[in-house]
Amino acid sequence: MDGTEEPRVRLPQLKLDELLEELQARVNAVRGTQNRVHSLLEAVLSVGRELDVEQVLHSIVEAAAVLVDAEYAALGVIGPDGTRLSAFHTVGVTEEQIAAIGPFPEGHGILGELIRHPQPLRIPKISDHRASYGFPPGHPPMKSFLGVPIRVRDQVFGNLYLTEKRGGVEFDEEDESVLSTLAVAAGVAIDNARLYEDARLRERWQRANSEISHSLMSGTERAESLGLIAERAREISDSALAAVAMPMEGTKSLTVEIAVGVDAEAHRGLVLPMGESLMGLAYTATAPVTSGDVVHDARITPEPPRFEGLGPAVAVPIGTGESGVRGVVLVAREAGRSVFLQKETELLQGFAAQAAIAMELADRRQDAQQIALLEDRDRIARDLHDLAIQRLFATGMTLQSAGRFIEHPEACERVLRAVDDLDETIKIIRSTIFGLRARTGTVASGLRARVVRATGEATPVLGFAPSVRVEGLVDTDVPPEIAEHVVAVLTEALTNIARHAHADRAQVVLTTDGREVRLRVSDNGVGIPSGGRRSGLLNMAERAEDLGGRFEVTSPEGGGAALDWHVPLPDAE
Q1: Which residues are CB-contacts of 385 (< 8 A; sequence separation ≥ 6)?
Q2: Which residues lie closer than 8 Å to 185 by C-beta, 6 or more apart?
Q3: 530 φ, ψ to 5°?
Q4: What average pLDDT is seen over the chain?
């Protein structure tokens, strides 16, 4: 070797291998970071594409599990009270495992720790944490844990829960950072989806308002319009039942005129006290009244049973305090469904207020038409009196005076008979004029209101308020003479219950189908003894027989007595 050449640096083979391995590790780390960033961007884009809230939540859970390589992932939505979970979306747990575990968690233990302290939480071993108290039977084993909150407009919407990082390793700071970034994007995606959902919901309410306004202003029957209000309220609020109750003039009660959905027949025609029911409280307070569970709500009378299988409910007045409340609409969801949020209640209230305005305008239009009709009747009556009757009277006088000059007896008799016919015609026209100018009676004197008042008057003697249901056109189909018998029979039946039944529940049902009227009064008392006095029952039976009807006394399976009074209506005979 030439002495002028510089010596070459020679590294041991072991040191060179270590440098190459470190370089390879750094390259792999850069590639891993790059891949993870790409995956994060893809996840952000994927959750941002969806506009359905439920689909957005499911996409977030799936993306979270992929990003941090977790076997199990879940997204818990925090309920309105801010202390527990109202919904739980999972990935990695099979349907069989979910069935074995039982109900979804409400936010206790580790899950509750993140609700109480909405900050990222990383745990190497779940069982070692102070808030952990084990898993329910059938739950898959889980060791490592990573949770981050999801905020929507500075409000904690819910939490992402990740467990069991694949490979048996723990979640690291990079996992936490990636998941926190996804949570920020998830909050934006959820907010966008909720705004889109709100816009669509408002659009549906507006379309329903337009439909109802058109129905009312086009002269559609009131019952059909109320049915449309109930049906649209049930559909748009995603409820199982909707009912509309209207006040009864002359009483302090509401009557459920329309009910659609689950067990609608149990509600239709029911008479409700204004201060002792959800609908009554909404009417008197002119404000929405909500219930988390209508089956066990103390403000709802247990008789008759009518909310089986239902849970959350809200009653909203139709109208406002300034313009006057015209009625109440109630919607109820199945048991286990989410309660009505303030936003949903406000939309329903706005819908009911618009419906009240449409009803007011329809009433004004009907009043104007009624005034025009009455004015036209007055004009016809005036013309009949001033023109027709006077001319007929003058013609009769002329014929009567001309009869004295007729010598033929038969001809004279015919003239006098014509004069008598003219007198009868004048009487008929005068009767017609009186009918044109007559006014109909008030609704408060109708049979429906009289039955409610009679039941209310018996309440102090009974010691409890009987439930009342009225179905059919009882005010128009039942003539006054039969209505008097109905009220008398009802009063007698309630008096008998107060004196002899020792009951704490009673039910009054009055129905008509246009062919007959039926009154049924039942109680849960001791029943009717075989050797007791029956003067009251005989009176009821005689009233039914005099009107061509029938009277029956039965003993229901649950005990007590049931009185059925049937009478045919005159037009149906």
Answers
A1: 430, 433
A2: 43, 44, 47, 48
A3: -65, -35
A4: 80
pLDDT computed for residue 557 by the predictor: 80
3-state SS class at 496 = helix
Return the closest-CA partner of residue 232 out of 213, 248, 255, 256. Answer: 213
Q: Is 538 left (phi over 0), alpha (psi -120 to 50) or beta?
A: alpha
| Per-residue pLDDT at 321 exceeds 90 | no
CA dist., res. 488 & res. 290, Å (int): 39
DSSP letter (8 states) at residue 97: H
Strand runs labelled E in 456-540: 467-471, 506-512, 516-523
Degrees (nearest 5) of the Cα angle 472, 311, 51? 110
Of 21 and 440, the structure prediction assigns the larger pLDDT to 21
Question: Residue 519 pLDDT more than 90?
Answer: yes
pTM confidence score: 0.63
Q: Is the Cβ–Cβ distance between 322 and 299 less than 8 Å? A: no
What average pLDDT score do residues 537-566 get?
A: 89
Handedness of CA 539, 541, 547, 552 (dihedral sign): positive
Query: b/e map of 256-276 (b: 16 or more CB within 10 Å)?
Result: bbbbbbbbbebbbbbbbbbee
Tokens of 339: 């309660």
Residue type present at position 445: S
Per-residue confidence band for 32, with pLDDT thresholds at 50, 70 and 90: very low
Amino acid residing at 173: E
